[in-house]
């Protein structure tokens, strides 16, 4: 029997989706063709397509700011080369790298993944190819037990992680709370008095914003040039401005304009909106007195033995936008994930407090999650999911997990109980492909079931 997977809104990242410059947007004449149509085979890699090859590269195979973020097949190349296209800032590695142990289990080649539409069993090779996988790394305990690469990826190649960035911002927020720099019950206004006139934040607690349950009048209709998300993008310099609309000059001034939604009290419903992450980051920056990049290095990257390059993307004002833009290597993410599934310890050092790990496992307000728009019958059934500190939490008995998720197939999947972590980096052609997202989850379940 064929099953249909409903839309998975949780995969959407407002930050990265701002780059859609599609003829389907209102105000854009679909008859105007700015670039020749590129013909390519389904599942083809960047090299097979010939993207950015030749001197000069053929026009139809050039990757530019207009097609790099979300347009297939150009994202098959761009997700490995983001800093060559957009402004970025580095995150320093550890002074001394720490190699993860490796004990490869080739039996994982033989697992079967259930296709979410047809319910047929597909091979690991088919699963990886059909979900446009660039890198897959599996950790059990403190050892890498499986790894696969395609599309010119390798263990130390940075890759775009989209909204996985949010989860690092949320973790840094929880770490600031653990250190006593603030309480989750404190009002955001206590630390950001600039938000006094922004009712979406002025009366909200830090936890409301951290868990995205603060009420906010904000629409994410990318086709509407007057929507909140399009105005947000124009402020950042990522989408075109519309005549007759008054725009703020920078991200911080824009955040001050956001208001509560139709009198809806804070804490009642979960709504996934990227500007909320910017406010979390603003609070954390202020109490730490350092940037996201500096905190990432000082509190995480320097302590988990990272090596090589990690960087974040910036807006046109050289401001980090916390909702997206982290670019990290498979092995550095695996080092981080190893720490998370080992009660916050890495290489004999306590990096993240066990109480924070427990807080994430316990999850957020399930009822608020179900009251929002993210619950879906087959992927996120009611009563089984929540959102806590910018992480997605699955509560299903036997499948409990803590996840960082980004569009186009970016995942950090943590089964803390069984000490299994999965890093998946992809360049899927559609940001919210329901079948591919469900297939990714089915792949993770199959891997965990095999290893546990």
From TrEMBL:
InterPro entries: Beta-lactam-related, Beta-lactam/transpept-like, Diverse_Enzym_Activities
SUPFAM superfamilies on file: beta-lactamase/transpeptidase-like (SSF56601)
Any Pfam family hit: Beta-lactamase
Residue ranges that the Swiss-Prot or TrEMBL entry lists as coiled coil: none
Superkingdom of source: Bacteria
Domain Beta-lactamase-related: 133-434
Transmembrane spans: none
The protein's name in its UniProt record: Beta-lactamase family protein
């Amino acid at each position: 029997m064929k099953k249909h997977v409903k839309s998975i809104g949780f995969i959407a990242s407002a930050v990265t989706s701002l780059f859609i410059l599609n003829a389907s947007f209102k105000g854009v004449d679909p008859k105007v063709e700015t670039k020749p149509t590129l013909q390519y085979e389904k599942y083809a890699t960047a090299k097979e397509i010939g993207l950015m090859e030749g001197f000069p590269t053929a026009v139809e195979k050039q990757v530019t700011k207009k097609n790099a973020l979300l347009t297939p097949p150009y994202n098959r190349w761009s997700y490995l080369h983001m800093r060559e296209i957009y402004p970025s800032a580095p995150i320093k590695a550890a002074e001394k790298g720490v190699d993860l142990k490796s004990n490869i289990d080739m039996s994982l080649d033989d697992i079967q993944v259930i296709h979410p539409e047809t319910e047929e069993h597909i091979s690991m090779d088919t699963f990886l190819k059909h979900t446009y996988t660039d890198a897959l790394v599996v950790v059990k305990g403190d050892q890498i037990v499986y790894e696969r690469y395609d599309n010119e990826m390798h263990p130390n190649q940075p890759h775009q992680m989209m909204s996985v960035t949010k989860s690092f911002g949320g973790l840094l927020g929880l770490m600031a709370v653990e250190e006593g720099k603030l309480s989750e019950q404190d009002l955001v206004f206590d630390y950001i008095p600039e938000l006094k006139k922004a009712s979406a934040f002025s009366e909200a607690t830090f936890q409301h914003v951290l868990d995205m349950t603060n009420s906010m009048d904000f629409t994410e209709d990318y086709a509407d040039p007057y929507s909140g998300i399009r105005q947000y993008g124009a402020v950042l310099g990522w989408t075109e401005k519309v005549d007759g609309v008054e725009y703020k000059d920078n991200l911080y001034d824009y955040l001050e304009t956001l208001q509560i939604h139709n009198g809806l009290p804070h804490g009642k419903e979960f709504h996934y909106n990227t500007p909320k992450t910017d406010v979390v980051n603003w609070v954390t920056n202020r109490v730490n007195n350092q940037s996201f990049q500096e905190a990432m290095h000082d509190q995480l990257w320097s302590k988990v033995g990272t090596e090589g390059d990690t960087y974040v993307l910036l807006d046109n004002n050289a401001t980090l936008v916390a909702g997206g833009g982290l670019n990290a290597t498979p092995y550095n993410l695996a080092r981080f994930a190893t720490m998370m599934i080992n009660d916050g310890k890495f290489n004999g050092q306590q990096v993240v407090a066990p109480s924070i790990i427990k807080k994430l496992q316990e999850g957020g307000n399930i009822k608020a999650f179900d009251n929002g728009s993210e619950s879906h019958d087959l992927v996120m059934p009611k009563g089984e999911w929540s959102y806590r500190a910018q992480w997605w939490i699955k509560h299903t008995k036997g499948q409990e997990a803590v996840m960082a998720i980004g569009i186009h197939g970016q995942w950090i999947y943590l089964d803390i109980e069984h000490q299994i972590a999965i890093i998946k980096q992809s360049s899927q052609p559609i940001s919210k492909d329901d079948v591919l997202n469900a297939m990714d989850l089915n792949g993770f379940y199959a891997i965990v079931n095999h290893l546990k």
